Amino acid sequence: MELTDRQKKVLQTVVDLYIRTAEPVGSKAIAGMPGINYSSATIRNELAELTSMGLLEQPHTSAGRIPSPAGYRLYVDELMQGYKLSVDETKDLKNAMELKMQEFDKVLDKVAKLVSQATDLPAYTVAAHRGSATVKRFEILMAEAGSFILVVMTTGDVVKNKLIKLPLNVTETDLKLLSAVLNASMTGLTPEEFTAELMDRVTRNAGAAASLVPVIVDFTTEVLRSQQDAEVALRGQVRLLHQPEYQDVEKAHEVLSSLDEETISNLPAVMGGEKTQIIVGPENVAQQLRDTSVVMTKFDIGEGMQGLIGVVGPTRMDYAKVTARLSYFAENLSRMFAKPEHGPKQLPQGQEDSTQEA
Questions:
Q1: Could you point out which of 37, 48, 53, 170 has its C-alpha 20 to 30 Å from the C-alpha of 188?
Q2: Spatial separation of the C-alpha atoms in residues 59 and 356, rounded to whole Å
Q3: Alpha carbons 27 and 33: distance in angstroms, whole number
Q4: What is the rounded distance in angstroms from the CA atom of residue 91 to the CA atom of residue 56?
């Protein structure tokens, strides 16, 4: 739909005021805003027109207007002004990250807590592989009579091994042949591509070690599928109760009971599409979240992994400010996970290199 410049200005002002006050916006409030040079009668006419277009809603006959989901969507796509973090905000976020980002294995949980605190909204983090993981290399090593160690290295540079005990009389040469067959036939494939036809061919070519093939395939499939699962951390759900929209206990319970890791992992385009995405109200797949909005942005983890941080809140949330804060976190997380440039190895003071020429 095509809006006039005046209609765009009125709609933008309604959304900005409603975000700030959580109260329906009337013509008098709009007329009192800087940069608005229209009469109250003109503003009332534009409010009525925007309502007929489905961009605004009127909760009560005598009340002002509030944005509809379509109004929020147009605002986010075309009218939202960029938000610049203040020096104090940047300093606070930087200090929080420096103080709390020390244990790599707990980064997802820590980031979710930090973002929730910074936005006063429920926040989540997701980590997942870009695309499906596949095997880069197989190794099969003789351990002892009847025991073998299977080593599987994946595209994410994850290495998994399994001790296999079977009553087989195979030699080290047999295991080398099996390794060669596996590396020639099963690398670069997803679990879905491990077809019965492929397994028959691998088994026929595996020689005396053919009976190891089913065990190897089962373990490899388990390893690859475990890497396809996204890790999700969700924190700060109770912060929704701080918002006026969720003072109604029944409404708050409905949203909080459905806001979990599974719901987050099923959000549309969680790891695809644009770097920053905004899902407004009814665009959410979960019925219980259709009165909420989601803002999410991606960051690079490295090693074939991608991360995402997001917040869930009322459709009235300050999209510009939330987007700016998420972008700050994402940029710093990408830098934190980036591999450092390795220069010449520096030895601790007082030590000498023990390698010498023969």
A1: 170
A2: 82
A3: 10
A4: 37
Task: Locate 350 and state its tokens.
Answer: 């007082």
Pairing, β 123-129 against β 56-57: unpaired
CB-side neighbour CA atoms (13 Å) of 337: 20
- The least confident of 196-210, 237-251, 261-275, 284-298 is 261-275
- Tell me, what DSSP letter sits at residue 345? P
What CA–CA distance (Å, rounded) separates 61 from 181?
76
Closest CA to 321 of 275, 259, 278, 264: 278
Supply the DSSP symbol for 139: E
- Phi, psi angles (nearest 5°) of residue 205: -90, -5
Quickly tell me which residue has 């599928």 as its tokens.
225
Phi first, then psi, for residue 252 (nearest 5°) are -65, -40
Distance CA 304, CA 237 (A): 30
pLDDT at 235 over 50: yes
pLDDT the model gives residue 268: 56
